[in-house]
Amino acid sequence: METIIIGICKYIICLLVVVYTLYGFTVFRRSKESQAGIFRFQIFLIFAIHAFSFICIFVGMYMDTLENMIKCVVLYLIQVIVFSIFIIAYKLAYKRLSRLVFNNMLMLITFGLIMQTRLKYSSAIKQLLFVTIGLLGCMIIPFIIRKIKYLKEFGWIYGILGLIFLMLVFVIGKEENGAKNWIIIGGFRMQPSEFVKILFVFFVASCLTKAKDFKSVVKITALAALHVIVLVLEKDLGGALIFFIVYLFMLYIATSDIRYLLLGFLGGSMAAVVAYKLFNHVRIRVTAWKDPWSIINGRGYQICQSLFAIGTGGWFGLGLTKGLPTSIPVVGSDFIFSAISEEMGGIVAICIVLICMSCFIMFINISMRIRMEFYKLIALGFSIMYIFQVFLTIGGVTKFIPSTGVTLPLVSSGGSSILSTLIMFNIIQGLYVLNQDDIDQRKLQEAKDARMMRERAQGQPV
Prior knowledge:
Layout: H1 2-26, H2 32-61, H3 66-93, H4 99-119, H5 121-138, H6 141-147, H7 155-167, H8 169-172, E1 173-176, E2 179-185, E3 188-190, H9 192-210, H10 214-233, H11 237-255, H12 258-278, H13 280-290, H14 301-313, H15 336-344, H16 346-369, H17 373-397, H18 415-457
Antiparallel strand pairs: 1-2, 2-3
Helix pairs in contact: 1-2, 1-16, 2-3, 2-4, 3-5, 4-5, 4-16, 5-18, 6-18, 7-9, 7-10, 9-10, 9-11, 9-17, 9-18, 10-11, 11-12, 11-17, 12-13, 14-15, 15-16, 16-17, 16-18, 17-18
C-alpha cells in the first residue's frame, strides 16, 4: 500500500510541477486579468505539490510511531500556515510586487522544505525557522529601496565593510569541509561571504555609477580583487568565482568596454592555473572531476554517489523516501539537486532549473526597465550572481564542472544562504516597485504635458 501511494503521488507531483513551470514561461502572453488568475493558480499548485510531497514523506518515514506521525503532521501544518501568512502579508504590504518572482521564490522554498523534511527532521525545523525569519525581516526591504534615495552614496564604505567582514574568519573563523569560511559562536553559525555578496554588488554599482575612467576602474578593481583573494585564502573557491564573475560582468555592463571583459577572462584563466599549481585542495577537486571513478573510495566518492543518484532516479524518480540520498556526503546543502533527481525525477529536476532560469529572466527584465544606472547595475549584478551560483551548484553535482561547494539558492540547507538569497529577492522586488512608481510618474507627466498642448492649441490660458 505504501509503495502504491508513493508511486501515484510522484506522478501527480511531476505533473503539477510541469504545469507550474509552463505557466511561468507563458503567463505574459495573456491579458492582465488572465495573468492574475494564473498567478493565483500557481499558488494553488505550490500548496498541492507541498501536500502530495508530505503524503509521501508521512507514509514512507513517519508512520512507525504515533509520536512521529504527529510530528510530521504538525510540521506540515506549520509550513502551510507560514506560507499563507506571508502570501497575504506581502500582498497587503506591496500591491505592485512582481507576482512571478514571488511565486518562484515560494516554490523554491517549498522544494527546500520538502527535501529537508525528507532528509532530516531537525534540518527541516532549522530551514523553516530561517525561512520565517528571512521572510519577516525582508518584508521591509522593498520599502527601504523605494523610500531611501541616497543608498548610492556609500560605495567605498560598502566595499571596505565587506572586506572587513570577510577577514573576520581569520580571527574567529572555523574550518569545515576544507574551507575556513564559517564563524561559529555557541550554536550560532554564519558564513560571512553570503552577506558580503550583497554589500559587494552595492559597492561595485555605486562606484561605477560615479566614475568609469581608467584610474577609477583600477581603484575599484583593486578592492574587488582583495575580496576574491581573501576568499581564495579561505579556500572558498565557489565564493571567489562568484565575486569574480559578478564584478567582471558589472564592469563590462557599466563601461561597455569589451577589453575589460577579455582582460578579466585572461587574468582569471591565469589565476586558475596558478591556483592549481599552488593549492592542493584545488588539484584534488580537479582530479575528482576529471576521473572520480579512479578514486571512488576517496575524494571521488561524493561525485560518484551523486551521479549514481541522478542516474537511478530516471525521468520520474523513485518516489520520495524510496531512494538513498543520505549516501551522498553533504546532500542537504551542496548536493541537494542530486537528491531531488533521485527521488522526484529528472523531469522535476529540469523544471527546477527552468524555474531558476525564469527568476533570472525576470531579474534581467526588471533591470532593463530601470532608468537609474545605480539601480540598473544592482539588478544586473544580482541577476548574474544568482544564475551563476545555480550554474556552479548544478554543474558541480552533474560533473559538468569541478565541484565548488556552493548551495542551490533557497533549496539547500544553510541559514546564511537562505537569508542572503531572500535579501537579494526582496531587493529585486523593491527595484520592481520603484520602477512601477517611476512609470506612473512618467505617465502622469505625459498626461499633463498632453493636456497643456491641447489647451495651447485651443488658445486657452495654461
